[in-house]
Amino acid sequence: MESTEWDAKEPFTFIFENIKDMERFMIICRDTLNLRIEDPGCLWARVLKGPGIQPDIPEEYDNLRVKMNLFYHEVDLDVQKLKPAELKEGLVCVVFSLALKSWCRAVVESVFQGTVETQAWCLLVDHGDRIIVSADDVRTPLEKFLQLPFRVRRFKLAGIRPMTLQVPISENTAELVPSSTWDSSATKYLHNLLQVSTLVEAVLCETQDGCSAIELYLTINNTKICVNHELVAKKFACFMSEKSSALEGNRNGDCAPVSLAWDIYSSPHQLLEMKGRCPVKAPPPDILLRKERKDDPQTVFTHSEKQKPQMSEEAYMPSQVNPQISKLTCNAGTDTIGRGWRIRVEATDIFTDENYGQIEIHKPQYMKFNTLLHSKQIAQSFEEKQHSPDQIDNNSSVSTPAASSSSCASDSSEEQKVAALSQEPSLEDQLISSRLMQFLNPDPLNPDQESLDAKVVRCNPGHSRVLVHSVLHVEPCSNLTRAPISEKFRKFLLSRKYNGPNIAESYCWPAVARGFDTVLVSNSDDNTLSYIPPLLMLLQTVSVASSLAARTGPIAVILCPGWEKVQTVLELLEDSKATYNLHPTSVLLGVDQEEPTKFKIQRNCHLLVTTPFTMMRLLDAQCFLFLRLCHLVLDEADMLYSQAPEQMSVILKHFQKVVSGEERFRCPRQIIAVGSRWSAGIESLVREYMIYPSIIITVMEEAALYGRVHQRVQLCLDCDKISILLGSLDFHPPKPQKTLIITNSAEETEHVYKAVVNTAVFTLKAHEDVTDQFDFVIDQWRKDIGHGTQVILVTTNDCLKALGIRDASCVVHYGFPSTPKLFGSRLFCLSENFRNLSDMDHAESSSPAAQSVLLLSEQNARHVCGVLRYMRRTAALLPPELLQFALGVQQAKEEQKTDRPLCSSLKSFGFCRDTTVCPDRHMINKSLDHPKHPDSGTIMVLPLCIKSANVYSGRIVSQKDDPYETLAAEMNSHYASERRCAVEVLKGELYAVQEESIYNRVRVTEVPEKGEQLFSSVTACFIDEGRTQEVKSHQLLQLPPQFQDLPGQAVEIILCRAQPVDGEVDWNPKVTRAISQKIKGKLHQARLVMSVGDTVWVDPMVRMTRVPGLKTYINEYNIHAEILSSGFGVSNPQHVDLLKRVFQGDENANTLQHLPDDSTKTISSLDPENEE
Q1: For the ranges 26-40, 141-155, 1002-1016, which has the lowest average pLDDT?
Q2: Which of 123, 90, 87 is closest to 105 using CA atoms?
Q3: Alpha helices (H) in 374-454, listed in sequence order
Q4: Cα 1148 to the center of its chain, rounded Å
Q5: pLDDT computed for residue 262 by the predictor
Q6: Element holding 1105 (H helix, E strand)
Q7: Which residues pair with 855 in a beta bridge?
Q8: What EC number(s) does the entry state (predicted)?
Q9: What's this model's pTM, rounded to 2 decimal places?
């Protein structure tokens, strides 16, 4: 039976009411309910609300539908990997519904083999519909598509079973008998009732095998009826047992069920025309009689002659009807009454409440037919069955059917009824019949089902959003088993619960292992793993020629931008224990000129980790140390070129000279550059020093920089975006052009499409609501176009991956890209027009082949600084208005940081490396930065906590009466006689902690949850020393109020005019450790330069020692000189001047005037707040 769908005239409510005595629960549904009806025994519905029921969220299912359509409609999708290994009953899958024009979740109910292909009969679990699909069109669902529960549930009408007309061929009679399948006319009648109902109520009776039995109640024109009883009254059904009789099964508490008096062929339009004057008749008398019966009958259709109500014969003749009864209208029509038979009937069984009592109860009768029209046993759609008076066959003789259920098969035995039931074909018989029909007729059983001609496209880097330019083919590795790494390193990665390789490593590992010159641009947190595993494998398997055996120096050198990365790389090599016979080591040299000449590399060291500055110093002092060099690795190459461009140039020239010797003809030669950004330095590296490089870029906005996409920024008001958009389009380009206009929503897509299509340019559109048209759109897009022709496609962000466009000539960002990742995914649509540096013959062109137009309105103000930072790297012409606007935005952001602490880099060195991304404050806040100490003069300082080589925490010691010394003495005296532990530890409160013989005041800054731990720790700040550390809770002592009056004595002490060597961000731990050992806990004399809040700047700071026996003091050491003499620190003469400019307010207007460009370290993003 084919299912159909109905729409109510008005929103209605689906209610399940609570029946305590039957322990049933009710569900209340206040929204419009989408119900799909196959027959009264199979109703598909959604439960939206109710006690104990978690309502579904429509937005979640809409998002699921969109995601599935976008995924399974992907042009580059490898469908072979998504086909199930075995197609069997009960399999959860995803299929495409042509009726819904959408991919849907489904369950395979049966599989049958046709003459051409295997087909599956599937149930759409979110729609309650069934379709037949080809086995090749069944897809395996992703795990994320199965997170939401199935949306529809199956219901059936409880306590009743279907009936059908049985027409013996040899007799001229017909009788109603029980059936195993519902008649199509019963389903049609149920449709009509639901369409005109204003309230739908249901009682949940039981649930078996995933199907819930309900009693359905409808309110029509303020009259409530029970559908279960209505179908029995209209002879579509019968009760399954006496316990399901009408009055006993009435769950709403009505004294008797109500039956509608219209005939079963009245259309919904005719029913609605009654407008509240709906004639209602009392329940059929046989229902009342069954209520009174006490003995259980064998069947509800067999009654004794004593129970048969009598009625005069003339009551059945329309011409002899009581004259008090108004003339009734006959509604004639054609419908399927019996299975496989179509008959013509005329129904006149319509009575009003007033006249019902004047008519006697009907006696059993049979319907007589003169003509029977045979039809095929295929379910017909209800839309094809029209009921009108002119369809009545003139040769047909129709009798009025009896209204009493006792008239059903009174002349037939129980065995005949059982035999009739057994003759009803089962589902298996239907499937066998369908297979036979398929064999006789190879056409599809479902004429509306078209085969999905899905193109199987081989997976490529573009599908994974990876740009791979390589003359030599690179086959990615997808798992550790097939990865080109050593077994020891593989075990090491598994021990660290490594779940890679990621997309960058899967392409980089094979290229490095094969000895290719490789460039990788990736934003991975740990780029070290992108090259070390295959590099170790390569070094251990490829032997250096014997001609180099006599020479010294490492075979491979890894250059890192700073000492921290050097330590990270060396620790990884040592922890892996996979460096057999390589003996890796690291070297970090300062500016001391004698140190490089004394340094020696062990002869068996084949792998060296260092910085460009250190290697440059070694080359200047001992150039013969690197004569065996074959592999040069640049870790964070973009930073290497920004921090040490001159050193990188010298090192690369030396490498080129070493590997170009005649004796090195058979030796390997490889350069590996790994970074997070594309830069001009990497470009020169590829052009001048690499041979057949493999360029791998996983960050798409960086790929656009590599591809030399011409960037344009159009400032506009949001209300004028359409006009600016049309003005930026070239409708008569000199070359064939494909333009992609990208919006942020389907509504924007329609809006832009209507505006562009009016320009008479061939325009296409694609968004989430028209995914079924993707194939047509792509076919049109990929067609060849001639000169002066432009094709425009308007689409959304979510559709880009599904469409798989790579050959666009221009991308217009109508909707602003809110994240760098989104911006890069849009630019990747131009990837086939990127320049290819791996192919030097075609790397150069007169003008960029790809361009990007960004529409920037006032609604995107907070992204302006990020946009400007990126656009500066592209060398694009920027509007002066954009620069001025960015300055204002950055100043506004700085004003919002008034509650943040002062930038630590600004305090330590006088400058911040990037004010646009630094979260801290860069201007004076008078309320927070009011000086608490004098800003000039000579003071005695006691450093107690060494944070770095030039930043300490300690106290200013008074030369006369020191209040802290007095406090310390009193605390020692107090706790010597009385020690009370803290009962309750609260955040922000003051306590005391004993360390050896000293009692310190601490303020608790963080109290973690103790849980089930016996002892817990809290984070506490020593307010008289400035250090912060964890303290055991049981060590905290109560601090009496008299010891809390004195403010915290800790002061931040910053030594001026010193900074790390080689442009390092942080001090080398060697320097910090040496300074800490020298000055911690010792009294120093210092001259104040300035003071802000609890911070003082001093210069110089010296240790003075008294000459024994004399009143003379001498300078034991100068801390500034000690830092410089270590070789890892240099002078910073502008430190004080820069601080004064900032603190006097002069720098506020200038610090943002020049936003950082490619010469400094920046984050490649449109907005750091939204960076992914």
Answers
A1: 26-40
A2: 123
A3: 414-422, 427-440
A4: 41
A5: 57
A6: strand 1095-1106
A7: 714
A8: 3.6.4.13
A9: 0.72
